[in-house]
Amino acid sequence: MLAYRLATFLCVMLLGTSALATEGERYLGMEVGYRPIITAETTLHTPALTLGGGYHFSDFALVEGTLFYGATYANDAFQNVAAANLAFRLLIDATQWVPSIGPEIGYLAGYSTDSGLIHSFYAGGSACLEYRTWRTHSFALCGEMAVVPFQDDFESFYGIGFRANGFLPYLFE
What we know:
Blueprint: H1 2-15, E1 26-39, E2 43-58, E3 61-74, E4 77-91, E5 97-112, E6 116-131, E7 137-147, E8 154-168
Antiparallel strand pairs: 1-2, 1-8, 2-3, 3-4, 4-5, 5-6, 6-7, 7-8
């Protein structure tokens, strides 16, 4: 019995299903990740929590908005970092594995007990590899890279995270 269940599970995971991305889908998501922020003095190794949502305005494109927060202790001071982000990604939708890639813009703010509030706009790119075998939820591995051109203290950052998404209206049924 256990061998049968394991074989069924492996077939579903490897062979795919028909849970493709479709126009009009909306989702809410949460991501746990790592986001090193490169400053003029050091690199802040920041664990981060990201909350957001997105809308598939076609079968092959989506727009996504997120908020993230991270905190770390560096340079003998507690460092807080937060950002608001808007991303546009094109989907390569083939099976239950849905890769997407595209540009993003955002606003990054940081607060340190020794230097106060620092903030600026940023621009970069993001990519995700989403795993969708269900119509109600999905899991993804996401990454991003960005530069902060209008601020001397922040230079750039990158991030990688694991995301879980719940699709609307399934969350409220």
